[in-house]
Specification:
The complex is a heterodimer of chains A (114) and B (117). Chain A has 114 residues and is an all-beta fold. In chain A, 0% of the residues lie in helices and 54% in strands. The model of chain A has no long low-confidence stretch (mean pLDDT 93). Chain B is globular and about 40 Å long. The mean pLDDT of chain B is 91. The chains are: A mainly beta (114), B mainly beta (117).
Chain lengths: 114, 117
């Protein structure tokens, strides 16, 4: 069975602080994909990143970085120098190689205080 | 391309009424998904289409729910005899899955918020 756990329900940080959002996943598959999505108050889920299970290289995109560790089944997301516009709910998701379903965690609500 | 479009954005209906939502995916995306999201939860899978074929349905999709994707383009999700428990955000997503290893992400619309009173 596929499962994604985001243990942090809500996080508040002061602007310019760094923040890490945790994601732990469960799967028996050897080929799978991991995703992060951002959901601002408008409601639309915005795609941020995809990782496949064979690529454990960390990735950096501007102020965003992702740390994928298969040994701990984690795919954590760090925002450096947070900004008020980063305030949103962030979801981690998992799919198998077929992509028939995306399994989402319960999300982490991030509030960046000016 | 304007992304995934969903209509209406909001729908308020009385219990027992039927409602229909529409989703226009990104053009040429072969996959289309429907998800439901309740307050404080992540999206839950309802069903997906590969072109016009509905290939998988969740147990969440009771017989009051039906989805179609005629001609493999837009899709509709109908809920018959709505119940208060149907109140949620209904999200549609499309994906070019299968065109290459890189094309595995799903792009979501802004959702239709249903309130059953």
């Amino acid at each position: 069975a596929q499962k994604v756990t985001q243990a942090q329900t809500e996080i508040s940080v002061v602007e310019k602080e760094d923040v890490t959002l945790d994601c732990v996943y469960e799967t028996r598959d050897t080929t799978y994909y991991l995703f992060w999505y951002k959901q601002p108050p408008s409601g639309e889920l915005v795609f941020l990143i995809r990782r496949n299970s064979f690529d454990e290289q960390n990735e950096i995109s501007g102020r965003y970085s992702w740390n994928f560790q298969k040994s701990t089944s984690s795919f954590n997301f760090t925002i450096t120098a947070s900004q008020v516009v980063d305030s949103a709910v962030y979801f981690c998701a998992l799919s198998d190689r077929t992509g028939n379903q995306f399994y989402f965690g319960t999300g982490t609500s991030l509030t960046v205080i000016p | 391309d304007t992304g995934v479009s969903q209509n209406p954005r909001h729908k308020i209906t009385k219990r027992g009424q039927n409602v229909t939502f529409r989703c226009d995916p990104i053009s040429e995306h072969n996959r289309l998904y429907w998800y439901r999201q309740t307050l404080g939860q992540g999206p839950e899978f309802l069903t997906y289409f590969q072109n016009e074929a509905q290939l998988e349905k969740s147990r969440l999709l009771s017989d009051r729910f039906s989805a179609e994707r005629p001609k493999g383009s837009f899709s509709t999700l109908e809920i018959q005899r709505t119940e208060q428990g149907d109140s949620a955000m209904y999200l549609c997503a499309s994906s070019p899955w299968g065109f290459g290893d890189r094309d595995t992400e799903a792009f979501f619309g802004q959702g239709t918020r249903l309130t059953v009173v």
